[in-house]
Amino acid sequence: MLGLVLFGAGIALKLRSGLGLSPWDAFHQGVSIHVPLSIGTVTILVSGLVLLAWIPLRQRVGVGTVLNAVTVGLTIDITLRLVAATGSTLVSWVYLLGSVGLIGLGSGLYIGARLGPGPRDGVMTGLAARGLSIRLARTIIEGTVLVAGWMLGGAIGIGTVVFAVLIGPLVQFFLRRLDRGPITVSASPPRRTRRAT
With b meaning 16 or more CB within 10 Å and e meaning fewer, what string describes 97-126? Predict the structure, then answer.
């Protein structure tokens, strides 16, 4: 849960930076421009729609998947109410770099918990399980969403590039330190046996 809250707060800081968003966030922002809904609400609704794509891909929903779908969107809206936009270029960059750090740490925590992938990640891994490489699946999904977000008016800019370059290494760094390993059921204690006399 801490990871998901940090992830959502990071997205909100990225929005407040005004320097550009990641593909999915640009798409969510673009949709929110055209409908009377907050970006956090749009994020939750899109998560629900993306989960429908899990059905033909036969992906399993975990408790972390459901929490991800709801918590991130709620946290975005709450953080946007608490953090004001800035007219300072320096503060904008602090927001942007802080957002990348929060999302990297948050990703390491929620992925490392092994309680289920996020809705969008599940589509990627589902496609990969059917023959596409992770790289190709990710590129197709992110590229499609990026173009759609740009066409809808989502913010694409230098921050989009900075995020794309830094987020992979950061997630890897934190995940190596926070991964809890596979969830296993503890074995029951061995039965006592009578010794032969």
Answer: bbbbbbbbbbbbbbbbbebbbbbbbbbbeb
- Residue-wise pLDDT tens digits, 70-111: 999 999 999 999 999 999 999 999 999 999 999 999 999 998
Question: Which of 146, 145, 11 minimizes the C-alpha distance to 74?
Answer: 11
pLDDT band at 187 (very low <50, low <70, confident <90, very high): very low
Assess whether pLDDT exceeds 90 at residue 7: yes
- According to the 3-state scheme, what is the secondary structure of the chain? CHHHHHHHHHHHHHHHHCCCCCHHHHHHHHHHHHCCCCHHHHHHHHHHHHHHCHHHHCCCCCHHHHHHHHHHHHHHHHHHHHCCCCCCHHHHHHHHHHHHHHHHHHHHHHHHCCCCCCHHHHHHHHHHCCCCCHHHHHHHHHHHHHHHHHHHCCCCCHHHHHHHHHHHHHHHHHHHHHCCCCCCCCCCCCCCCCCCC
Locate 20 and state its tokens. 């550009």
